[in-house]
């Protein structure tokens, strides 16, 4: 079974609505951070239920700013998972602080909450849970741990729009009784569930954290620096800290507004695709379909299929090659951090130090799941997977 032409692993869902928004922005004469970005922030904050939304140029920038805002310093520690992309830990290293890794659960590949408290030391300042593939981490126990130990929680929500946890959108604040410092950090990269090409957002109900992030996102210039070229603005500004250049442009924000307007439709389509995959693969001993939790809304940013290699005569790399020969683009999420040379050499990690992350990585493949896929595309992916299993299954 072969798709007529190569089916990319991911494609953005872009149409005339993005072009209209971008054209209007270009015609306005305001192309960098300005009124369109403020509108995007307001609409996004309203969608997820956050008091503040700060638009930036990547999720990496968002996490960096959030950690700076809580006062992370040299030799501090931040607990996170090895089963994530490079950005989650590298932002900790920006401060010459230490990312402390704990293993994941084999079911959903999210952080194993039972291991977190044993990793806390007097140097621990924050926890960064990662919502893998768009399925929420069980947040309340993490908030409770953070409360007991006086830690901040900075959620890596690069995959988690529009995900929910116990009926509230990821991006909304923890229940007030926890009383912790908190932010969520979204990604609008080209492959994400909504895209601005490159982009990100920090959401928080913490007024002080939001103000610090806004200032540091644009060179540490005093509040509302973007207004200095408007009729009501002033030429005068003050630099109150050595900030960064992390602002999102109005051109990107215009695209974000168009994407946000159809986010629900795109999510429903990804959910349909996931359901079709699940029906096709669930009963097969060669394959393990992704974990889902009916109590939460899965964003289905990724469809992470796992191979039961004992039932196959080929390994994961060969399985991927077979799918590519059938014109199906696939990927792997993720190569665990502790396997990469930098973390291996800096901290002396061995693959077996995080046995669940290592074992699950060896058998994971991510199938295409994006709203521009036709029913024929989905059928061809299913047919290709089944054909590889039929050819190489035991």
| Average of the residue pLDDT scores | 96
Helical amount: 25-40%
Q: CATH homologous superfamily name of the largest domain?
A: Type I PLP-dependent aspartate aminotransferase-like (Major domain)
The end-to-end distance, rounded to whole angstroms, is 20 Å
Total domain modules: 2
- What are the secondary-structure elements, in order, as H or E? HHEHEHEEHEEEEEHHHEEHHHEH
Shape label = globular
| Biggest sheet, spatial arrangement of strands | 1-9-8-5-4-2-3
Low-pLDDT parts are none
Report the top-level CATH class of the largest domain: Alpha Beta
Give me the secondary-structure category: alpha/beta
Q: CATH topology of the largest domain, which one?
A: Aspartate Aminotransferase, domain 2
| CATH architecture grouping of the largest domain | 3-Layer(aba) Sandwich
| Number of strand segments | 12
Describe the structure.
Helix 3 (59-69) crosses helix 6. The radius of gyration is 22 Å and the shape is globular. The chain folds into two domains: 16-261, Aspartate Aminotransferase, domain 2, CATH 3.40.640; 263-392, Aspartate Aminotransferase, domain 1 (Alpha-Beta Complex). The chain has a seven-stranded mixed sheet, sandwiched between helices. Helix 5 (139-149) links the parallel strand 4 (124-127) and strand 5 (152-157). It starts with 15 loop residues before the first helix and ends with a helix. The longest helix has 19 residues, at 263-281. With 394 residues, it is an alpha/beta fold. Helices cover 36% and strands 12% of the residues.
